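Figure caption, in words: inputs first, then the predicted bound structure.
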Amino acid sequence: MKLLLVVAVALIDADNRVLIAQRPEGKQLAGLWEFPGGKLDAGERPEQALIRELQEELGIEVKEACLAPLTFASHAYDDFHLLMPLYICRRWQGTLTAREGQNLAWVRANKLRDYPMPPADIPLIPPLIDLLM
Ligand code: C5P
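Bound structure (cytidine-5'-monophosphate present):
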């Protein structure tokens, strides 16, 4: 089975809320909410990929030193196995903008379950509750 490495981040604001983004129409899993991030390009380290994705998707600049690994998701979809480390980040520069037209929501960790997520993302919620609640 093909392995896919995707890197994701929980951006955390001053009120300890977490940012999630809704997958737009036309993409796989459209309408589901996810932690921002994406696939690694060839030769990229996970942190570099996150920094690039956050610039592309949200228009913010993140320093590598502000990314801390929290946990790791591993989920077998029908056609591939997804490995997805989750980082946390509390500091960034620039104004957060939905650059791909995606809906964004700032959510308390204990309310994340109210937002339908891809199956790979759901096991990432309890470590965030432990960290933030
Ligand atoms: O975001 P992208 O479509 O490039 O991600 C590739 C695949 O990885 C998605 O179709 C989805 O199955 C999975 N994925 C996920 N949770 C995420 C991001 C991606 O399950 N937060």
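The chain has a mean pLDDT of 97.
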